Each structure stands twice: as structure tokens, then as C-alpha cells.
Amino acid sequence: MKKLSILMILTVLLSGLALTSCGKYEEGPGFSLLPKKSRLQQKWRPIESVTSGGVVTTIDSDGSYIEFVKGGTIKAYDGTFDVGFEGTWEFSDDKTSLNMTYEIFGVSSTSTMKIIKLKINALGLEDADGDKTYYEYF
Fold first, then answer.
1. DSSP code for 60
2. Cα(35)–Cα(4) distance, rounded to whole angstroms?
3. pLDDT in tens, 14-40
4. CATH number at residue 7
5. How many CA atoms lie within 13 A of 92 on its CB side?
6. Which helix (H) or strand (E) holds 8?
7. 12-43 CB burial, b ≥16 within 10 A, e <16
8. Radius of gyration over alpha carbons of the chain, in Å?
9. What global pTM score does this model have?
10. Which domain holds residue 94?
11. Which end of the chain has fewer surrounding CB within 10 Å, N or C?
């Protein structure tokens, strides 16, 4: 009986350590049953930006969005300038970044954004300069 209770305590402790170390992204989630693709593939509205210097700006809803479509297509619309574009996206090998290729005004661009948050209703991306943009599902 004593061996069984020690074994149960060790199992609980090890399970707790395993679950707390599952977080791949800085701001969460620590653990999710939904695959990363399922959490990402939806429409996202920008709500906040944070510069690398720490300046926080709330983004008013102007109709802007970014949509990650199943199959690797990305669609975006900037409500401020009335510009939309399409392109492609894919996860990096370790699924900590997004590689995106798109064309705006005839100019092809490629960018890599670090994923800092990927929840079912919240997304956070960081560009190469350290600027962060937060999105909410809509």
C-alpha cells in the first residue's frame, strides 16, 4: 500500500511537470488539445500593437483582417487603405514561426513572423524588428 501511494505521488508530480513544459509559445497556451493548424486557420482582426520599445497602441476596428485558410492560402484586407492581398503561408519546421509569401501592388514579398501566442481566440505575431501585433478571432 505504501509503495502504491508513493508511485501515485510521483506520477502526479511528473505529470504536472510535463504539462507545464508543453508550452511552445511565449504567451500561451501552455497546453491545448486542438492542433496548431486548427487554431490558426480562421479570420483574425488586429486589436493591439506593441513596438519593440514597449509602446502599446490599441487598433480600432476598421474592417482590417487576416485569414489563414486551410491548404496554405492567406488572405488579408486593410480597411484603412482599402487594399487586399492573397498569398501563401506555412509553419516553420518547429512550428514556432509563420513563413508568408504575398504580392502587394505587383511587388512580391516574403516575411517570417514569430508566433508568440496561438490560442483558439487569440493570436500574437512578432516581426523581425521585435514589433508585436495581437489579433482576436472574429
1. P
2. 35
3. 554 444 445 678 887 777 788 999 999
4. 2.40.128.280
5. 12
6. helix 2-20
7. eeeeeeeeeeeeebeeebeebeeeeeebbbbe
8. 19
9. 0.79
10. 2-137
11. N
